[in-house]
Amino acid sequence: MKKTVNWKAAFLGRCPICGGGGIFSGFIKIKPACPTCAENLDKYETADGPAFFAICFAGTIVGIAAALYQVFYKPPFYMHAIWLPLTFGLSFAVIRISKTLMIAHQFKLKDV
């Protein structure tokens, strides 16, 4: 039997298996089970993978933007303070998406 995954739901922070309710109990903490389909989400290992992807993605985007901003506009040093909150915000957004995508990937490829 072929497993199907709702990828759009994974990008929206919903259960990637059924597409139902949200799977986050906090901002980045995964609930133990899906509220809609009761799939046990604790068995899927997300560990440090999502954080690594988020840091690499956000660091690259913000680093390039900061360098281009400095080269083309030559702002005063204190204007670069905007990059820190932007990096945190982008990292947290990417962590949520990558956690749900990692659960979807594990569900699709193996029986846990």
Structure description:
This protein is mostly helical and 112 residues long. The protein has one domain. The protein is 51% helix and 0% strand. The protein is built from three helices and no strands. Helix 2 runs antiparallel to helix 3. The mean pLDDT is 90.
Give a brief description:
The chain has 112 residues and is mostly helical. It has helices at 7-11, 49-73, 83-109. The chain has one domain (7-109).
List the helices and strands and how they pair.
Blueprint: H1 7-11, H2 49-73, H3 83-109
Helix pairs in contact: 2-3
Instruction: Report how far apart the termini are.
Output: 15 Å
Please report which band the strand proportion falls in: under 5%, 5-15%, 15-25%, 25-35%, 35-45% or over 45%.
under 5%
* Low-pLDDT regions: none
Secondary structure class reads mainly alpha
Q: What is the overall number of helices? A: 3
Mean pLDDT: 90
Radius of gyration based on Cα positions: 17 Å
Query: How helix-rich are the residues, as a percent range?
Result: 40-55%
Whole-number tally of structural domains: 1
Shape: elongated
The count of strands amounts to 0
Q: Kindly report the oligomeric state of this protein.
A: single chain
Q: Major sheet, described briefly?
A: none
Strand/helix succession: HHH
